[in-house]
Specification:
- By secondary structure, this protein is mainly α.
- The chain is built from three helices and no strands.
- The chain has helices at residues 8-17, 27-39, 44-58.
- The chain is elongated and about 50 Å long.
- The N and C termini lie far apart (54 Å).
């Protein structure tokens, strides 16, 4: 077997490196989530706060 098994971190890094390419996803939401991931701050509370901020800005 020549395929190397990827670690969880490698899978997450790969997903987040291509998250902006997903069709139909709000660009601003993706940008915020990607930024939180890159900063190591991707938590339920931070996501919720950022999504609330986006909703308030759009209202």
């Amino acid at each position: 077997m020549t395929d190397q098994i990827k670690s969880g971190q490698e899978i997450l890094d790969e997903f987040f490196s291509h998250i902006t390419d997903i069709e139909g996803v709000d660009h601003e939401v993706v940008t915020v989530i990607l930024k939180l991931y890159q900063e190591g701050k991707l938590t339920n509370i931070n996501i919720s706060n950022e999504l609330s901020r986006i909703r308030e800005k759009r209202a």
